[in-house]
Amino acid sequence: MTSGNRKVAVVGVALSDCGRVDDATPYTLHAQAARRALADAGLDRGRVDGLASAGLGTLAPAEVAEYLGLRPTWVDSTSVGGSTWEVMTSHAADAIAAGHADVVLLVYGSTARADIRAGRRTGTLSFGNRGPLQFEAPYGHTLIAKYAMAARRHMHQFGTRIEQLAEVAVQARANAQLNPEAMFRSPITVGEVMDGPLIADPFTKLHCCIRSDGGAAVLLAAEEYVRHCRRPPVWILGAAEHVSHTTMSEWPDFTVSPAAVSGRLAFARAGVRPQEIDFAEIYDAFTYMTLVTLEDLGFCAKGEGGAFVEKGRLLVRGGELPVNTDGGGLSAQHPGMRGLFLLVEAVRQLRGEAGERQVRKSGGRLPELAVASGTGGWFCSSGTVVLGR
């Protein structure tokens, strides 16, 4: 990082119980993930002097800190949707590099699935219906409809086919088959994706993320703390963020996501090129998100995402660029704001701890470089983090 003198590493990661968790609250999932991440790092809770948290409900960082028994001197509650955690990682790394914090805990927990099943609507997947959005909401312009419109524009402009979007879901499920923690592991075919119930044209059910419960935690620490930790460090090499729009009328091009800016900046700050990345963790609330983010991060040219995702290129086993190695939000878990889960999986892969789904380079070597890119709202915001072993 260029904003300070200290290098910053991820020293601990963990998930809480995920999937179907009917006997927990968001607080308990926060605590479970935090305890496991601290144990993973081998650090005492007293070392943590920074906290970053946000959520779909009303859990303020002050409440989370008190519940976890923390007294942080640096706090972040940035909330820009699913990209929140990559953006917070950038903020926390800058703070550590500048000496404003030493060990920062990023933590999240949500009972999104259990709340819906119990009839509790404690959160929202939109940015509200205030201001300019009041002119879209009355016409049913929901989050999924906005993604569907963007996908249709890409299909119209570049000839992207629905079968290519379906391939994203099929390969995500194939990766999930290798992950014992994934919520859905049964194989699916392109035909099954296309023949499913229509949700918002062109998306059928399997083009859309699952809804789960779950939590995650990531510990960032200054370089001098690394020697005290149990696991090998994964370094934050570069990070960036970008906010684009909230209303569709203010989005200049439906085929370009804000990752086009955050990705370019993150790679430049890390001093690496997309071609050097060994695998990618990309927010995938819908199949189109994966395709267009791959384009905007520079893994293929604009308009070529459809061809890029074909022929098993995203698979852990045999793929040229494994993507969403845990199964992603389409198959593994998606408890509302999934960006932190991308970072957990990226770190596990770089440390060689991913079990059957472990990415290997030629000769069986472990991967060295990864990118995690989160998207918020309906391509409203993006945060991209480049990680290295």
Summarize the structure.
This protein is of the alpha/beta class and 389 residues long. The protein has a single domain, classed as Peroxisomal Thiolase, Chain A, domain 1 (3-Layer(aba) Sandwich).
Describe this structure in words.
It is a single chain. With 389 residues, this protein is of the alpha/beta class. The protein has one domain: 3-Layer(aba) Sandwich (Peroxisomal Thiolase, Chain A, domain 1). The chain has helices spanning 26-41, 61-68, 84-97, 112-117, 143-158, 162-176, 190-195, 259-270, 287-296, 305-308, 328-331, 339-350; strands at residues 8-15, 50-53, 74-76, 103-110, 198-200, 203-204, 214-222, 234-243, 279-282, 369-376, 381-388. The longest helix has 16 residues, at 26-41. The chain is globular, with a radius of gyration of 19 Å.
List strands and helices in order, with pairings.
Layout: E1 8-15, H1 26-41, E2 50-53, H2 61-68, E3 74-76, H3 84-97, E4 103-110, H4 112-117, H5 143-158, H6 162-176, H7 190-195, E5 198-200, E6 203-204, E7 214-222, E8 234-243, H8 259-270, E9 279-282, H9 287-296, H10 305-308, H11 328-331, H12 339-350, E10 369-376, E11 381-388
Parallel strand pairs: 2-3, 2-4, 9-10
Antiparallel strand pairs: 1-7, 1-8, 4-7, 5-6, 8-11, 10-11
Helix pairs in contact: 6-9
